[in-house]
Amino acid sequence: MDNKSVTFSFDSLPNNVAELQALPESSLDTPFKTAALVVLALARYEASQQDTIDMLNFLKGPESVNQFQIQFLRDRLSGKQYKVNSFFEGTSPENGYQMTAPYKITVSENPYSYPEANWATLWLKSSGADSMREVKLRCKPSTGQWFMVDQMLLADIRVPAASDPWA
Predict the structure, then answer these.
(1) What is the pLDDT of residues 58-71, one digit of tens each?
(2) Taking the mean position of all CA atoms in its chain, how far away is CA 46?
(3) Least C-beta-crowded within 10 Å: which of 18, 31, 52, 123?
(4) Within a domain: residue 42?
(5) How many structural domains does the chain have?
(6) Is 125 within the bounds of a domain?
């Protein structure tokens, strides 16, 4: 079985849940689409934490973001938006993780991505890390939509070169 990767391209980044829902990927009919939209939602964090939470609530489907998850986002992203930017094609520590349009995100599966029916773990490459990062998803059989259960995208990565005293 070949491992599939899907690259998504976006002309602009959504500013709120309505703009996210207007994207064709918001059909959430594949786990790849949902995983890519998680990155778009997190990319809004620095400008508006509430918009990010609203978008994540949409992507979580029947569940919502809880207080622990809100605090986790605050702890991991405050002053470190570059972590999210690192998932976009063309970014690197050397260019300060600067994103340019079109904004491209690649989501991949591996042999262990589907441990049981209606569950998936997909992987994204950060330009500032040596290992791939995961998004766990669950399919709601009644709608065929894939929703985010958890994301492990926000561990530390290499800091932008301009901020690295050892660069």
Answers:
(1) 999 999 999 999 99
(2) 14
(3) 18
(4) yes
(5) 1
(6) yes
Torsion of CA 84, 88, 93, 98, to 10 degrees: -90
The parent domain of residue 98 ranges over 5-159
What is the rounded distance in angstroms from the CA atom of residue 35 to the CA atom of residue 6? 10
Q: pLDDT, tens digit, for every residue of 134-161? A: 999 999 999 999 999 999 999 999 999 9
What tokens were used for 7?
Answer: 């690259």
Q: What is the DSSP string of 58-117?
A: HHHTTS---HHHHHHHHHHHTT-THHHHTTSTT--TTTTT---SSEEEEEE--TTS-SST
Q: How far is CA 73 from CA 19, 23, 58, 86, 94, in A?
A: 21, 24, 16, 16, 25
**What is the token pair recorded at 59?**
């992507």
Separation of alpha carbons 111 and 43, rounded Å? 28
